[in-house]
Design a protein that fits this description.
The structure holds 2 protein chains of 2 kinds.
Chain A (H helix, E strand, L loop, with lengths): L1 H14 L14 E3 L7 H15 L3 H6 L7 E2 L5 H4 L12 H16 L7 H26 L23 H18 L13 H21 L8 H18 L13 H7 L7 H4 L2 E5 L11 H6 L8 E2 L1 H4 L21 H4 L5 H6 L46 E5 H15 L4 H6 L1 H7 L12 H6 L7 H13 L6 H7 L14 E5 L5 E2 L9 E4 L11 E4 L4 E3 L5 E5 L18 H6 L12
Parallel strand pairs in A: 8-9
Antiparallel strand pairs in A: 2-4, 3-5, 6-11, 7-8, 10-11
Helix pairs in contact in A: 2-5, 2-6, 5-6, 6-7, 7-8, 8-9, 8-16, 8-21, 9-16, 16-20
Chain B lengths: L8 H16 L22 E7 L10 E3 L6 E3 L5 E5 L6 E5 L6 E4 L5 E5 L10 E4 L2 E4 L7 E5 L11 H5 L6 E3 L12 E3 L12 E4 L2 E2 L10 E7 L2 H4 L10 E6 L7 E14 L9 H15 L18 H12 L6 E3 L5 E3 L5 H5 L4 E13 L3 E13 L8 E16 L2 E17 L8 H8 L15 H6 L1 H6 L3 E20 L3 E20 L2 E6 L2 E5 L3 E20 L7 E24 L17 E23 L3 E12 L8 E12 L13 E15 L10 E11 L2 E6 L12 E14 L4 E18 L13 E24 L2 E21 L18 E4 L2 E4 L3 H5 L20 E3 L22 E5 L3 E12 L2 E12 L1 E2 L6 H4 L54 E2 L2 E12 L2 H4 L6 E15 L35 E11 L1
Parallel strand pairs in B: 1-7, 13-16
Antiparallel strand pairs in B: 1-4, 2-3, 2-5, 5-6, 8-9, 10-15, 11-12, 13-14, 15-16, 17-20, 17-50, 18-19, 20-21, 21-22, 22-23, 23-24, 24-25, 25-28, 26-27, 28-29, 29-30, 30-31, 31-32, 32-33, 33-36, 34-35, 36-37, 37-38, 38-39, 39-44, 40-43, 41-42, 44-45, 45-48, 46-47, 48-49, 49-50
Classes of the chains: A mainly alpha, B mainly beta.
Chain lengths: ~600, ~1100
């Protein structure tokens, strides 16, 4: 007995060593990277991470124009009104660069997959599409940046390299977007949620127009090839237009067609809208993917109280094609009258006469929200339940065919090749949809030139810029438009004050939407007896009338917004320079 | 230390076998018998003389000789002699002495007695639990400390972890807050590794376990193995110390039933104090806002995002403040409520008192063949939150039994079962810390309810209304079941013992979070809801197996030689499955259940983690005459957590001991030195704490958060960077120790000094340019040195006080450690934002503040502070902080932020907890016992992190807390332009980022977080046996205990809003913001307990 037990202990102890598999543990819920990239499915599931990291958010699209010339907000940002330096600057963290590594890792490894060349090129094209978008954003922010096309190892000397020139980087961006625009497949999903060859063409027109005009209007760069870029922009747009796969959404209802694009939930069920939307960020009630734009744009507190300013609203034409600013005394017209017979996009962009919420309540501009009286409703759903809930399910267009038309028109005009036929292919289509007479202008618009673009005399160019700002209002493109046109000074308060509606007198009740009920009254002190339904806007430190007792509302007149030309680029962040001093010299003016 | 590869492991096994067999062939001797003392009696009337000696024949000086039942007595002289007169008929004397068992001497017919007193079971004969066995304390040569059940008894804590805090030198337990479910990692001897990390291995009856699952009543002893030598048999599992929790022995003979029950009343140790007057608060809010905006901005339009602000509202607020008769709520022309409150949100959030109950019962008994121990515990603690309060319930059961199958074969079994439930309030809309939400939304002007009884938007947003509404909560259920079966076989009695045990453990942890919409209204007809309709469930199931085998050989080598050889093996394997499910859309909000939901947006995730360990080990102790002690041990370890070519490591250690007190030359000190022993040890252990699979490049797979092509798509992305040469971290410990028992065991001293080198630490590489796009990969890049010491002083004595025995004891422990980085690859420029060679851990770099600016001229003449902006426009004004220009250049800045070029930075303090200490005081008299335990930290600097609103108040966020500590001590233009004010010109956003004047560390706001705390005090009374025995009760004790009754801390100099033990970042169980929001956690509690302990 003793021996049996003794031996069994010994055998037992030896048996420990046969438990080799005890020490061989494989990860259970992760994929071993060494065996990845074999099938088309591998390419496909990896490719979704590009969207996850880089697809613009609802906020990127709908709120960015809060920092632009045509909008007033409750408090201007520090970049314009404070003291900005490389310490304040962000956008160069590891997390900002990881999307690039993710793309480059894919580009290095995807060719391992056993798939046809067409399939491989489609996914390579997709990765390069996103790399072009990535670098466009970096160049727009910082100008020259280092170009990388591999997923580097920690000992790679390239990590410490100096910045590549803007010219070089944008050249690479063009190569990338060209590859995508040639090799990607043309299949379009019904939600407009995936990138295809046409998305690449549309993006190419945006990128090339940006770079072409930037080079043209920024002679200090010393780059003389603006024309080449503008040509590429025009060609890309034209190719897309000629392909006939996309068209403007127009059902013959000019008073509502435009806004339908921004409040539609399910593009799969609305193929005609999906026919204009080239790329969108999809929202869905059942999947509970949503945003809170309606809340943001209709709450006194949960948002920046984004409001259009009078100077910009003036540029919306009358429906007969005439200019509002050509009317006598146009600047002293009361809001209700001011809104009459204007481009139908105006009443689809801001609250005007006849705006009802879904429950039938009439909704005039709300001075608890709007600063100027021009209360933006473009992104807002009509159901007022959304005013307090972040559960809006209208999908967000990121790229629209309308922009392609505008890109084409602008590129052609900048090239000096714009004529009646181009007009008819582009601006006329947009104006027709908006119920505005599509005839060409007879002359350059003096108001537009004086107020916004004193350096532009070409009547077409002015009209194209007008059209672009109206059609794409609050779609997140305006700030970069100003940068490429070298119109940063429009952001300064001395150039464009935040002007609101015209108020003939204080202490008078005004009906803003013609329903016979008073909506607002501008006072110095809230009266002791008030009228129900009237909002009392108290003049004070934040808001005043331009003429004292009457005139235009002026918002935040106490805060100066400053512009200096160095602000066309942001400084390279201090934290980046600390780890790689070769990124110096700093951008001009930010040393 | 070399690592041997797989091919060499069989050689090692062979060696072990040889040791085992060789040891078994050594001749065996029988053990000698202890001698008992003789008594001689001679006859003479009235006067008795005598001598008192110890077991070794040495005279005992100062022993008490007494006539029983009287106060008549004497003490022995320097030769141990005494003379005493006794009545003729007196037949007995009592002889007593501290450290010895009192003896009653028969003097009938005797005039001279010689008395030998037997040693009490004193410190040096104490049995200490060590790895795979026990040892007498006198024979220990490793650094081992042990406490027994008495320090845990009468502590009404949810788990033993809180009771152990401060009781064992250099067992560092930091409880980050007062949450009843709070666990803690057990640290032994300071900084372990800046890489893989590592805390002590905790073994419950020899098997890894969670101390919170142990019924405190079950604990017999807790032993801590601190140096490499004592932990070597645990190899890579015990790298940074081992804590051995041993449950009560199974007793033979009779049935003993013990019941202990108590009830506690708990309250917060610290009640943060804020201004709750709405007008005062708002005035300060505006001042902070304008300070940041350089006094040029427009009025804010909101207080924070949802509470509108306007000048006319503010004026109305003043009017209503001046006239408290006016209502606090009105309705404006939009039909919205306007509030003018004076709300004390913290008072609404917390209860003043809460309660806990604890019942424990154990039954112990048996005979020579079988014996058993059964115990059960029910513990319940109500939370401190007033509404939807948290609620902990815990149930423990344990059943141990032993059957002697044959004379030399015993089988035993140990089953434990622990179940706990913890309910916790949540907010309807997400996982947020309520303390932070109150900072952001809990302004005094906001109110809890509207006049119609509905919740205000603020109260739902800040969470107090949400708690009151009770619809969102978290439930945690934890089940731990463990069974160990053991077999002990003694083939040769007293010489060879073989043991085997096998354990299966199962743990199921389930956490459910329910978020449901909460209703509120913003006006009489403006009803709305905030929140989400979301159910999440996490389920973690762990299956754990382990088996241990040991052979213990104690050959009899004669009187002078003693050898103890242990060889053994250990296998552990663990498999953990994590399931996570999430779905939204309750069909019936009152019935949160996955079936009764209709959201198509759901997530099901499964993650698993497997690991396995194999080790064989050996230990040999040899002692010569009990004077010279040697121990060598080693372990050969394999871990699944490493790549195949690095899986195995061998880890040896050795120690030496010398009992100087037994040397002949020390004979002269016998009268006062009972024991003096020197110990020295050295050893190396590998650290196996690396996360499994960390050496593999893996890609995670998940669902997109976007809808792509009509659905959520499966996605994967790039792997993280992984080094190709990963190897074990190693910890090498050198220990020198001294144990002494002096003055007849009245005084005991233990002292250890050690050095621990942790090498090849697995740390993130140096910061690389961000364009890499991924965090720098980890590698074995760094070495660390930790130096420390621990000292224990014990004193105990007893004497006669008014005819009754008075005994008391004092135990003071103090310990310390400091760490330095001795190697750090890759940070050659010694950037201060990373680790660097030579770095002293915990050092705080910061600016020096020279008070407040007093004039524009002073500002103009001072170096530029534009890189530490005070405001939007970076415009300095009198009252702002003036930073000292240490490097005398033209700006205040950190230079290159390196060790060589650190601009105006210098080391302003150190955040490590230094000179931790514990002090136990105890006394017993006439059935009364009084015990007090103080615990504390002797030195610690603390810089309140950014977003710590309890400290920074409105300097952090203008809409945040306004601490009453700041009132009157703040520089305010035109009000209090006091250059000596502690708080500078009031501006918001000064503390919410590390680039701001208060967010950046500086000496002015560095706090002294040292403290001493009366952790526990117990008064008990044992009812005399003469009374209880009639009720067949063996003993009956009633007790009163207080926990955390008194605290003294340097913090209170500038802030009274913090408990010194709750200064870490907020409660990570709810939301994690590492290194932010200090103090936003569950409050530390103090308690008053009344209890009873009965033994039948």
């Amino acid at each position: 007995m003793k021996k049996i037990i003794l031996y069994s202990f010994l055998v037992g102890s030896i048996a420990f060593f046969s438990c080799e598999d005890l020490l061989e543990k494989e990860p259970i819920h992760e994929i071993d990277a060494s065996g990845f990239f074999t099938t088309e499915n591998d390419l496909e599931i990896y490719s979704y991470s590009f969207y996850e990291r880089d697809l613009p958010t609802a906020d990127d699209i709908a709120k960015s124009d809060g920092t632009s010339d045509y909008a007033a907000i409750n408090t201007p940002g520090t970049f314009l009104s404070g003291d900005w330096s490389s310490v304040d600057q962000t956008g160069w963290a590891v997390s900002n660069w990881s999307a690039l590594r993710n793309i480059n890792y894919f580009l290095m490894n995807a060719p391992k997959a056993a798939v046809s060349e067409n399939v491989l090129n489609h996914y390579i094209g997709l990765a390069r599409f996103w790399r072009a978008v990535f670098y466009l954003n970096k160049v727009q922010t910082f100008g020259a940046v280092p170009w990388y096309e591999t997923a580097m190892q920690p000992d790679d000397p390239e990590l410490n390299k100096a910045r590549d020139s803007r010219e070089f980087v944008m050249g690479k961006v063009l190569e990338d977007i060209n590859f995508a625009a040639i090799h990607m497949n043309e299949t379009k999903d019904t939600y407009s949620s995936l990138v295809n060859r046409f998305t690449a063409l549309a993006m190419k027109s945006r990128i090339c127009l940006y770079e072409g005009t930037y080079r043209k209007y920024h002679p200090e760069l010393g780059l003389s090839d603006a024309g080449t870029w503008l040509r590429e922009a025009a060609n890309a747009a034209k190719e897309l237009m000629d392909a006939g796969k996309y068209r403007l959404y127009a059902t013959g209802n000019p008073e509502s067609d435009y806004r339908s694009l921004f409040i539609a939930e399910d593009l799969a069920g609305m193929p005609k809208i999906a026919g204009e939307v080239i790329l969108s960020r999809v929202m869905n009630t059942d999947s509970r993917v949503w945003h809170d734009l309606t809340w943001n744009f209709n709450s006194p507190t949960n948002g920046s109280r984004w409001s259009l300013i009078k100077q910009f609203v003036n540029t919306y034409l009358m429906r007969d094609g005439s200019r509002f600013t050509d009317k006598a005394g146009y600047d002293q017209i009361e809001f209700y009258t001011e809104m009459k017979n204007r481009d139908y996009r105006l009443s689809q962009t801001i609250r005007t006469e006849g705006y009802y919420r879904e429950d039938g309540t009439i909704a005039p501009p709300d001075f608890a929200v709007t600063l100027t009286g021009y209360h933006i409703k473009k992104w807002s759903l009509d159901d007022s339940w959304h005013d307090g809930q972040g559960q809006c399910t209208n999908s967000i267009p990121i790229l629209r065919y309308a922009e392609v038309l505008l890109n084409y028109a602008e590129a052609k005009a900048e090239l000096g090749e714009f004529s009646a036929s181009e007009w008819n292919e582009t601006i006329k289509l947009l104006r027709d949809r908006a119920g505005v007479s599509g005839s060409e202008p007879a002359s350059a618009d003096g108001y537009l030139k004086d107020t916004f673009f004193p350096n532009i005399s070409d009547k077409y160019l002015l009209e194209i810029r007008r059209e672009r700002s109206i059609e794409l209002c609050f779609e997140g493109l305006r700030y970069q438009d100003l940068m490429r046109w070298k119109c940063g000074d429009l952001l300064a308060s001395e150039k464009l004050s935040w002007k609101g509606i015209y108020v003939p007198a204080k202490d008078v009740n005004y009906d803003l939407n013609g329903d016979g009920k008073a909506d607002v009254c501008f006072v110095d002190k809230k009266p002791s007896s008030t009228t129900s339904g009237v909002k009392y806007v108290i003049m004070g430190a934040n808001i005043k009338l331009s003429e004292g007792t009457r005139g235009h509302l002026i918002w935040a007149w106490g805060i100066e917004r400053k512009w200096e030309d160095k602000k066309y680029l942001r400084p390279i962040p201090e934290s980046a320079v600390l780890l790689n001093p070769n990124l110096l010299p700093q951008n001009d003016g930010w040393e | 230390m070399e690592f041997i590869n797989k091919t060499r492991k069989h050689t090692f096994l062979f060696c072990l076998t040889v040791i085992l067999l060789a040891a078994g062939s050594v001749p065996l001797h029988a053990a000698g018998k202890m001698q008992s003392g003789d008594q001689q009696v001679s006859q003479q009337m009235r006067t008795i003389t005598g001598i008192v000696r110890d077991a070794e024949g040495l005279p005992l000086i100062g022993a008490t000789v007494q006539i029983p039942g009287t106060t008549t007595g004497t003490v022995t002289d320097v030769e141990g002699r005494f003379i005493i007169k006794v009545p003729d008929n007196q037949s007995r004397l009592t002889i007593s002495f501290i450290g010895f068992i009192a003896s009653v001497v028969d003097i009938a017919g005797k005039s001279n007695v010689e008395v030998t007193l037997k040693s009490d079971n004193s410190e040096i004969d104490e049995v200490v639990v060590i790895g795979y066995g026990t040892a007498k304390k006198r024979d220990l040569i490793g650094a081992v400390d042990q406490i027994t059940s008495e320090v845990i008894e009468s502590r009404p804590n949810p788990s033993i972890t809180r009771s152990l805090q401060g009781q064992i030198p250099n067992l560092n337990i930091t409880m980050r807050d007062g949450k009843p479910s709070r666990g803690a990692s057990y640290n032994v001897r300071g900084e372990t590794s800046i890489g893989a990390g590592g805390s002590a291995l905790i073994l419950i009856d020899g098997v890894e376990g969670d101390p919170s699952t142990v019924n405190p009543q079950d604990v017999e002893s807790v032993s801590v193995l601190k140096d490499a030598s004592s932990a070597a048999v645990y190899g890579a599992r015990g790298t940074f110390g081992v804590v051995l929790i041993t449950t009560k022995r199974v007793n033979k003979g009779g049935v003993k039933i013990n019941y202990d029950g108590n009830t506690s009343f708990l309250t917060r140790t610290v009640k943060p104090s804020f201004v709750t007057n709405g007008y005062e608060w708002t005035t300060s809010f505006l001042n902070a806002y304008y300070g940041y905006n350089d006094y040029s901005a427009s009025d804010p339009t909101t207080i924070n995002n949802i509470f509108p602000f306007s000048r006319s509202w503010y004026e109305e607020l003043k009017r209503r403040n001046d006239n408290p008769e006016l209502p606090r709520v009105s309705v404006n022309e939009d039909g919205r409520y306007e509030y003018y409150g004076n709300t004390d949100w913290n008072k609404l959030l917390y209860k003043d008192w809460t309660q806990a109950t604890d019942h424990k019962i154990s039954i112990n008994g048996g005979n020579d063949q079988t014996s058993y121990y059964l115990s059960g515990r029910y513990f319940a603690q109500d939370g401190i939150y007033r509404y939807n309060t948290d609620d902990l319930k815990r149930y423990n059961f344990r059943a141990k039994g032993q059957i002697k199958l044959r004379d030399n074969l015993t089988i035993d079994n140990n089953l434990s079962f622990d179940y706990s439930k913890y309910h916790y309030p949540l907010m309807s809309y997400g996982d947020e810390l309520i303390q932070r939400n109150l900072e952001h939304q809990g302004y005094p002007v906001a109110m809890m309810f509207n006049p119609d009884g509905t919740y205000t938007y603020s109260s739902i947003y800040n969470g107090v209304g949400d708690f009151h509404n009770k619809t969102s909560f978290q439930d945690e259920n934890t089940l731990n079941v463990r069974n160990t079966v053991g077999l002990t076989y003694v083939p040769v009695k007293d010489v060879l013992t073989l043991k085997w045990d096998g354990t299966y453990g199962y743990k199921d942890y389930q956490k459910t979070r329910v978020n449901r919409y909460a209703p509120y209204s913003e006006g009489p007809a403006l009803f709305a809801e905030k929140g989400q309709s979301l159910r999440r469930m996490w389920n973690q199931e762990t299956n754990y197996f382990s088996t241990n085998f040991t052979a213990n050989l104690t050959p009899k080598l004669g009187a002078n030689h003693s050898l103890n050889v242990l060889v053994g093996g250990n296998i552990e394997s663990s498999n953990r499955i994590n399931l996570y499910n999430r779905r939204d859309g309750y069909l019936y909000p009152g019935k949160p259940n996955f079936i009764l939901m209709d959201g198509i947006n759901y997530v099901m995730e499964e993650r698993s983690e497997d690991w396995g360990f194999i080790g064989v080990f050996a230990r040999a102790n040899y002692s010569f005459k009990g004077k010279y002690l040697v121990e060598v041990s080693g372990r050969y370890d394999g871990s699944s957590k490493f790549p195949t070519n690095e899986q195995w490591g061998i880890f040896p250690s050795a120690s030496l001991g010398w009992r100087i007190s037994d040397e002949a030359f020390m004979a002269g000190t016998k009268g006062w030195i009972d024991n003096l022993k020197l110990r020295v040890s050295a050893g190396t252990l590998g650290n196996g704490n690396v996360d499994p699979y960390s050496y593999l490049e893996t890609q995670t797979v998940s669902k997109t958060s976007l809808l792509l092509d009509g659905g959520f798509q499966t996605q994967t992305s790039m792997p993280t960077l992984v080094p190709d040469n990963l190897t074990w971290e190693k910890a090498t410990t050198y220990n020198f120790g001294l144990d002494a028992d002096l003055l007849k065991a009245r005084l005991s001293i233990g002292f250890d000094v050690y050095r621990r080198n942790t090498t090849d630490m697995y740390v993130s590489g140096p910061d690389l340019p961000q364009v890499l796009g991924v965090g720098a990969p980890k590698g074995n890049y760094a070495d660390l040195k930790t130096l420390g010491w621990e000292l224990t002083l014990g004193w105990k004595n007893r004497f006669d006080l008014a005819g009754s025995d008075f005994s008391y004891n004092v135990k003071f422990m103090v310990w310390d450690s400091q760490s330095w980085i001795t190697k750090y690859v890759g940070n050659e420029i010694k950037s201060l934002s990373s680790y660097y060679e030579g770095q002293r851990l915990g050092n705080i770099w910061g600016y020096t503040v020279d008070g407040l600016f007093t004039s524009a001229e002073e500002i103009a003449g001072h170096a530029s502070q534009s890189k530490i902006p005070v405001s939007k426009g970076k415009i300095l004004l009198p009252g702002d902080l003036k930073f000292r220009n240490l490097d005398e250049d033209d700006e205040i800045y950190r230079g290159q932020n390196t060790l060589d070029d650190h601009g105006d930075l210098s080391v302003i303090g150190n955040s490590e907890q230094r000179y931790q200490f514990g002090l136990n005081l105890g006394g017993n008299y006439k059935g009364f016992g009084l015990n007090a335990f103080f615990q504390g930290v002797g030195r610690r600097d603390w810089y309140p992190d950014i977003e710590s609103g309890y400290f920074w108040g409105q300097y952090n966020r203008h809409y945040g807390y306004y601490p009453t500590d700041q009132v009157g001590n703040m520089w305010i233009e035109g009000v209090n332009e006091d250059p000596n004010a502690y708080w500078p010109r009031q501006r918001t956003y000064l503390a919410n980022s590390t680039s701001k004047p208060m967010g950046v560390k500086n000496n002015r706001y560095l706090q002294n977080a040292a403290y001493v705390r009366l952790k526990s005090m117990t008064l008990d009374y044992s009812i005399p046996a003469s009374l209880t025995s009639k009720l067949k009760i063996t003993s009956l004790k009633i007790y009163l205990t207080g926990e955390n009754l008194w605290t003294l801390t340097g913090l209170t100099k500038h802030t009274t809003n913090f408990d010194p033990e709750v200064i870490e970042s907020g409660d990570g169980d709810v939301a994690s913001n590492s290194n932010e929001e200090n103090g936003y956690s569950y409050p530390m509690l103090k308690s008053y307990t009344v209890g009873v302990n009965i033994t039948f």
